[in-house]
Each structure stands twice: as C-alpha cells, then as structure tokens.
Design goal:
mainly beta; six-stranded antiparallel β-sheet
C-alpha cells in the first residue's frame, strides 16, 4: 500500500494508524464531605457525617478507513460513552459513654444510608463513512449504530448498635 508510512508493506504503517485513529477520555470529579457532632448532655453525643461525590466521564474512540491495511469499511469504528456516577453516604450515630465508680458503660446506635447512581449512554458506530468531514454519528446509516442506555441505582440502608460494659477495668461484656 502506498502512503502507509512504511513504504510498500501490506500493513498500514504507524503514521497511517496514528492519522486514522483517535482515543481519549475526559473526566470531571467533585467531592464534598461534612461532619457534625453535638453533645446533647454529658456523655450523650449525636454525630452525623454526610459525603457525596460526582464523576462525569466521556470516552471517545475511532478507527477510520486508513487504519486498516486493506481499507475494509467493516474494520472501522467510532464509539462514544458518556457516564455520570454519583454517590451519597450519610451516617448518623447516637453514643453514650460514662463512668460510674468502677462501672464503665458505653453504647452506640446508628443508621447509615449509602446510594450510588449510574446514568449513561453509549453510541457504537461501525462502517464509518469514508470522507474528510468531521466525524459525526448523524453521517452513519441507522443499521450501523448501536445505542445503549444505562440507568441504575444501588441503595443500602443499615441500622447498627453496640453496648459495652466494663467493671473495675478487668471485666468486659459487649
């Protein structure tokens, strides 16, 4: 093949492969956390922690006609994936800890909420039209496009508790 970067070889050379392919990913990430603690009375504390994050990702790749050594349209592709992932974590606890003479008592009860959300779309194109225009999914024949959507929510809720009792610093019951 001529103009393949190697000269006379049957393989599309490195220059042709680089000129006829692209692959990249862009991401945006944000994270926020907060924490609050309040002593209601001596030894009785309320704590709350809240955290959330967000990830927005776009992945793009294409391999055009010049990428393949035999210039087969069936070996071309153009794919784009957009995915947004967000999560939320909230933990609330109520704890009590006091010492009365030789008696040491501590308890904790709490509730936790955790969720993760996925929202995305993927467009896969095959048989990329061979032209010098900016590549656009609108130029594809409908049968050459596959569109996949994703919308998913995962949630976990939990309740927990613990009681500790110690006597004279030697005996412990949990």
């Amino acid at each position: 093949r001529s103009n393949n970067g190697i000269g006379g070889s049957g393989d599309a050379g490195p220059a042709a492969k680089l000129d006829n392919s692209e692959d990249w990913e862009k991401s945006l990430f944000a994270n926020v956390n907060s924490y609050l603690q309040y002593e209601i009375i001596e030894g009785l504390n309320l704590k709350s922690a809240l955290g959330t994050d967000f990830l927005d990702t776009r992945e793009y790749t294409h391999q055009l006609l010049g990428f393949d050594s035999r210039a087969r349209a069936s070996q071309t592709e153009m794919d784009q994936t957009d995915l947004k992932v967000s999560s939320l974590l909230n933990t609330n606890t109520l704890s009590y800890a006091r010492v009365f003479g030789a008696h040491d008592i501590s308890t904790v009860v709490g509730f936790e909420y955790n969720s993760k959300s996925f929202r995305g779309i993927e467009i896969e194109g095959a048989n990329v039209p061979d032209n010098n225009e900016i590549q656009n999914f609108a130029l594809f024949a409908p049968e050459d496009l596959t569109v996949t959507e994703r919308e998913e929510l995962i949630v976990r809720k939990s309740v927990f508790g613990r009681i500790n009792y110690a006597y004279d610093g030697r005996y412990l019951v949990t």
